[in-house]
């Protein structure tokens, strides 16, 4: 079951649920000697991990308190990291904050930290590890992790020390409220009947992917 914005607003008490010049040897993809990195998307409201001309790209709409988003990372996060590392996949993460009841709540602070992690020294795989750790340590219906705790997760994930310090200091990376509203508006345009999280969109095919098919990611990568 997905949680829509409307349900989140009125059911406060519910349980929250780039081309990579990859080389081939005997047909096996090898990591590109360049490291895939992370940048902010052109619209300013997404975080693009991976080479910008990777053969497959997806957009993941995700809410830091959504337990189904945590399931997605637990089930497919390591595979996402592997495809990022060999230059075959680029992922644009689009955080949402509809499960917050205040502007600077749990989801807003985690989303801000994700944008703070965007740095020339941050690799796509370290960023993906950070995402996975944040969701593995998810604590819905609480005040959420402190800035220091989020910074510890970033450090353990391989995020550069200077970036970790910015996360610990809670520096504002962007207008999180505007980001959340913009990303939800985009999601609603793509999937007005079920604008819930997690949603994975394949722009090249203009398709919402069925992430409840256990083979969705392997099928997607086989289409490259």
Largest sheet, spatial ordering of strands = 4-5-7-6-9-10
Radius of gyration: 17 Å
Number of beta strands: 10
Q: What is the second-level CATH architecture?
A: 3-Layer(aba) Sandwich
Number of domains: 1
Biggest pleated sheet? 6 strands, mixed
What is the beta-strand fraction?
A: 15-25%
What percent of residues adopt helix (DSSP H or I)?
25-40%
What is the C-level CATH assignment? Alpha Beta
Name the shape in a single word.
globular
| Topology order in helix (H) and strand (E) letters | EHEEEEEHEHHHHHEEEH
Structural class: alpha+beta
The CATH topology label is Glutaredoxin
Word description of this protein:
This protein is an alpha+beta fold and 224 residues long. It has one domain (3-23, 34-222): Glutaredoxin. Helices cover 40% and strands 15% of the residues. It is built from 8 helices and 10 strands. It has helices at 5-10, 67-85, 106-116, 124-136, 147-156, 161-168, 176-190, 216-222; strands spanning 3-4, 24-25, 28-29, 38-40, 47-49, 56-62, 89-95, 196-197, 199-202, 207-208. It has a 6-stranded mixed beta sheet with strand order 4-5-7-6-9-10. Strand 2 (24-25) and strand 3 form a beta hairpin. Helix 2 packs antiparallel against helix 4 (124-136), helix 4 crosses helix 5 (147-156) and helix 5 runs antiparallel to helix 6. It is globular. The two termini are 30 Å apart. Residues 1-32 have low confidence and may be disordered.
């Amino acid at each position: 079951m997905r949680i829509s914005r409307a349900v989140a607003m009125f059911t406060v008490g519910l349980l929250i649920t780039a081309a990579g010049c990859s080389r081939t040897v005997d047909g096996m993809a090898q990591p590109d000697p360049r490291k895939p990195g992370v940048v902010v998307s052109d619209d300013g409201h997404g975080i693009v991990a991976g080479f910008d001309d990777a053969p497959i790209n997806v957009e993941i709409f995700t809410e830091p308190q959504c337990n189904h988003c945590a399931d997605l990372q637990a089930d497919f996060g390591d595979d996402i990291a592997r495809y990022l590392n060999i230059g075959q996949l680029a992922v644009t993460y689009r955080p949402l904050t509809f499960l917050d009841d205040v502007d600077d709540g749990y989801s807003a602070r985690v989303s801000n930290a994700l944008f703070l992690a965007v740095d020339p020294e941050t690799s796509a795989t370290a960023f993906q590890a950070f995402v996975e750790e944040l969701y593995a340590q998810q604590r819905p219906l609480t005040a959420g992790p402190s800035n220091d705790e989020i910074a510890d997760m970033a450090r353990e994930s391989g995020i550069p020390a200077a970036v970790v310090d910015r996360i610990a200091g809670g520096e504002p990376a962007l207008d999180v409220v505007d980001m959340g509203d913009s990303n939800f508006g985009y999601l609603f345009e793509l999937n007005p009947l079920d604008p819930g999280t997690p949603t994975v969109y394949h722009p090249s095919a203009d398709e919402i992917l069925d992430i409840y098919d256990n083979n969705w990611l392997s099928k997607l990568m086989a289409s490259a």
